Structures are given as C-alpha cells and as structure tokens.
Amino acid sequence: MDFYRREWMGRTVQRENRIVDAAIVQNLFQGNNFLASTSILVLGGLAALLGASTQAIVVMASLPLAQASSERGFEIKIMLMIVIFIYAFFKFTWAMRQFNFLSLMIGTAPAKTITRPSSIHSSIALPPSLRLPAKIPIAACARFTLRWERCRGSCMRRYSWRRARWWWVFCTTVNFARALCSR
Q1: pTM here?
Q2: What is the pLDDT of residues 40-59, one digit of tens each?
Q3: Which of 21, 41, 60, 80 has the greatest number of CB atoms lying within 10 Å of its CB?
Q4: Contact at 8 Å (CB) between 38 and 20?
Q5: What is the DSSP string of 47-83?
Q6: Which residues contact 31 (CB under 8 A, 6 or more apart)?
Q7: DSSP string covering 112-161
Q8: What is the C-alpha separation between 183 and 177, in angstroms, rounded?
C-alpha cells in the first residue's frame, strides 16, 4: 500500500483539480473518526460494567460456557480492557491529526507536473516537496490499521479467556494468523 500512497502523492501534483484528493482524505478521516468515537462508547460501556461488576458476574455465571471468576479478577480484566481502549482512542486521534496535516499539505502542494516513468509498476520519482506529504498517509494508515488490529485482538483474547480456555486458544491462533497474513 505504501507504493500506492506514494503514487497518489505523485498524481496529486499532476492534477489541477484536487477534489478527488480531498475526498480521499475525507474518507480516510471519517473512518478514523468513527473508530475513535466507537472507542469512547466502548469506554463508557466498560466503565458502566465496572460499576455493576457484581451483577455482571451473576449474568456471566449463568452463561453455559462461562467459567466462574472472582469479582476482583473480573474488575482487573475490565480495567485492562479500559486501558487498551484508552490507548486505541489516543492512537486514532493521532492518526486523525495526521490526516489533517495531510489535507493541508495537499492544499499547498506545488502545481507542477512530474515526468512519468515508462513502466506502470515503477514508482514515481517524487520531488523533495512531496516526500513528506507522501509519508504522512503511510504513517497515519499504519497507525490506524495496526492499532485497531491490536486493540480488537487484545480485547478478544481477554474476553475469550473469561469465557473458556479453548476459545482463548482459538482466538489467539486466529489473531496470530491474521497478523502473519497481513504482512
């Protein structure tokens, strides 16, 4: 994907009308904004769950595959998930800030053309004024996808440990396989 992001920055300079680029940045920003606001909602739900932990333990004990847990252990697991989602929220907001920087850099990109290489698969030689704007969407998207995968995977493993040991092994294996396949 880094190749395509560099290619995008190279084509940004070639366009007179940069509405397409603004729409792409807005799309990236809205996805990040959605996940940041979802993290806040999850944090609110976890805080409410922490306040009603005794009732939650009673409900969880009535589930067929759930194992009994102490109230202290349950609260520690919820606190750990709260820490994970706070971390995810700050990473999403940092990625949103980088997308804001990117939109400013696209707006100030020079209006000169770049000579295209002969092969469609060879990368564009970016001028020095576009090297930094090409790195910003790369870094923002890396933070966005990596943090979401880590947050989702960590919480899934923590929750599955509460449910059943075999489910935890399954979720950990699936998350590990997805991490290997995404590279």
Answers
A1: 0.59
A2: 999 999 999 999 988 988 88
A3: 21
A4: no
A5: HHHHHTHHHHHHHHHTSTTPPP--HHHHHHHHHHHHH
A6: 144
A7: ---PPPSSTTSPP---HHHHHHHHHHHHHHHHHHHHHHHHHHHHHHHHHH
A8: 10
